Amino acid sequence: MSILIDEKTRLLVQGITGGEGSFHTQRCIEYGTKVVAGVTPGKGGSEILGVPVFNTAEIAVKETRANASMIFVPPAFAADATLEAADAGIPLVVCITEGIPVLDMVMVHSYLRNKSTRLIGPNCPGIISPGKCKVGLMVGDIHLQGNVGVVSRSGTLTYEVVAQLTSFGIGQSTCVGIGGDPLPGSTFVDILKLFQEDKDTKAVVLIGEIGGTTEQEAAQFIKEKMTKPVVAFVAGATAPADKRMGHAGAIISGSSSRAKDKIAALANAGAIIAPSPAEIGLTMKKALEK
Amino acid sequence: MKIHEFQAKVLLSEFGIPVPRGGIATAPAEAKKIAAELGGKVAIKAQVYAGGRGKAGGIKVANTPEEAEKLAAQMLGTRLVTHQTTPEGVPVGKVLVERAVSVQRELYLSIIVDGASRMPVMMASEAGGMDIEEVARVSPEKIIRVYIDPAAGFQAFQGRKLAYGMNLSPTQIRPATSLMTNLYKLFQARDCSLAEINPLVATADGELLALDAKLNFDDNALFRHSDIEQLHDLEQVDPLEARANELGVKNYIKMDGNIGCMVNGAGLAMAVMDLITKAGGKPANFLDIGTVNNIDRVIAAFKVFTTDPNVKAVLVNIFGGMARVDVIAQGIVEAHKQMDIRLPLVIRLAGTNVDEGKRILSESKVKFIEATDFYDAARKAVEAAEGGGK
């Protein structure tokens, strides 16, 4: 098993005809993902990469029974595309787009509260269940099918970590990039829950960053609910202090946005802390040998 | 993106929020003229992108137009150092000359997007003024919060909750509620990431006024607010950050080390900085080169590195996903064609189109040290910076 995506995933790509959209769609197809439809308003009826293109997500879902969507729409229109996917009843939406205004995402979250759609991203590399399905930007061949789940706020740092795991022969059940934006569709806790329930996931790597409080929420969940080992790393211990957001930002997050506070929270919750980003794979190897 | 207090107050006024009368001066004589027009006591306020001005001598009171001129002359053209700035401080190019008001109460009011609830939150406190963060730590119950459902907008009952919570007088409840409604309208309409009025004062006459104001804007939304984008004062930003910004390199933050870093992705960029530190070195900057697949931004990044006298070596670590390694490699080659770059260069490439990227580099005349992974890259860059510099 795996979480979120597998052989049964039927993918719709919103923004399939754009440069990035078509490039990465092709990579997904080559990896084995079943891309069943594309949506670009005004280009309905055409075909790209052998995939039929529709004007709206609703028609695309009706015609192709797509059950997941990947969004490559430019930032000004990406919130709208996300709502369109949710309205079409697509249960999983992966929004790759970087640079969506925060208040657009506030509106998206408000709309999604009454929908069953799960949003991953935005500003994320996507999801891969190695050997089964890839919905995103990650390079397929660094991955190896296996039993370690990976969840991360960072895209490229995840690639580094996966390459380390694979070099030790440690395969991955699913790797989820939840994205680096302040208002992600899914949080660490959402994904940890899925990994905890997934029979084929034996351990989890969690990669956090400075800023916000999501690592602390993850720590709370790990302490209370996780029985599987979690190896964690938080990037940014030496980064410039979080750019000050007036007093209001400090009131909201207190000191919790710093790396050392996040690491302390995760360590207290029983997570195994990797001493450096270059030793995450090794730390997991040791954890699995225990 | 930040703007100055006087600009924030113009926006507040546009949205019907009362602010003290005043004018902006770039020369002492202007300050004198504005003070004479306003009459009576005035406050002279240095316009800088930093908090803590009061304690640092950036806010002074003048009793006469002559005194206003003298105080403005003392501030203009100097650099103000506060606890939020670097030791070099920030330049004072403008002062706001404002009619002094007799303050009866100092309140606090702000809006920010809250990550946990995924909604804007409005916070109010009757303990406004300088030490609001201390209030939040010591007596958090003194800060009242209401969460704003974006579909419903800010509601009058929420305004009453905050206004009564701050123990305002009966005649102040309505004006306060209307002020809060307007502040949310501004926050929403102009894509603010922060709207903060500290202090919001009640004057001796019972009037509510935004005595100080801070507005920050969501960089991702500037595409629909070109008028706001134009307000950005690059004088207030670190010169290298300003130069980077001018060249279209957006995610650049100057630091005090000697290794110029070009990395794709913020998390990886931070991890590489962590590794440089672990290897005994210091990064000269944070730079997420991002995912734009054109060579111009890579060339621009090298322009920034060569402008920074502290940089003794450059580390490029790219794990291609959205960013294509071949394009980055072309950019590196082109940068070396356009400029005489003598800095030692350590390159580690992986990911999308890596073979093509490596071929482009190896067939070029660019001299570089190849690294096998990111820790290897960090170690080699630290070594190169030590050997090449000082």
Describe what is shown at a glance.
The complex is a heterodimer of chains A (290) and B (390). Chain A has helices at residues 19-31, 57-64, 75-87, 102-112, 156-167, 188-197, 214-225, 246-253, 259-268, 280-289; strands spanning 10-14, 34-39, 47-48, 51-54, 68-71, 92-95, 118-120, 126-129, 133-136, 145-152, 172-177, 203-209, 230-235, 272-273. With 290 residues, chain A is α/β, with parallel strands linked by helices.
Q: Briefly note the CATH topology name of the largest domain in chain A.
A: Rossmann fold
Q: What's the CATH class of the largest domain in chain A, please?
A: Alpha Beta
In the CATH hierarchy, the architecture of the largest domain in chain B is: 2-Layer Sandwich
Largest interface: A-B, 65 and 67 residues
Class based on secondary structure composition and strand pairing of chain A: alpha/beta
Task: Identify low-pLDDT runs of chain B.
Answer: none
Protein model, in words:
The complex is a heterodimer of chains A (290) and B (390). Chain A has 10 helices and 14 strands. Chain A folds into 2 domains: 111 residues, Rossmann fold, CATH 3.40.50.720; 164 residues, Succinyl-CoA synthetase domains (Rossmann fold, 3-Layer(aba) Sandwich). Chain A has 290 residues and is of the alpha/beta class. Chain A is globular, with a radius of gyration of 19 Å. A 7-stranded mixed sheet of chain A has the order 3-4-2-1-5-6-7, with helices on both faces. Chain B has 390 residues and is an alpha+beta fold. Chain B has 3 domains: 155 residues, 2-Layer Sandwich (D-amino Acid Aminotransferase, Chain A, domain 1); 80 residues, ATP-grasp fold, A domain (Dna Ligase, domain 1, 2-Layer Sandwich); 151 residues, Succinyl-CoA synthetase domains (Rossmann fold). Helices cover 37% and strands 24% of the residues of chain B. Chain B is built from 13 helices and 18 strands. In chain B, strands 7, 8, 9, 10, 11 and 12 form a 6-stranded antiparallel sheet that branches. Chain B has a 4-stranded antiparallel sheet with strand order 1-6-2-3, covered by helices on one side. In chain B, strands 14-16-17-18 form a 4-stranded parallel sheet, with helices on both faces. The radius of gyration of chain B is 25 Å and the shape is elongated. At the A-B interface, α1, α4, α5 and α8 of A face β7, β8, α4, β10 and α9 of B.
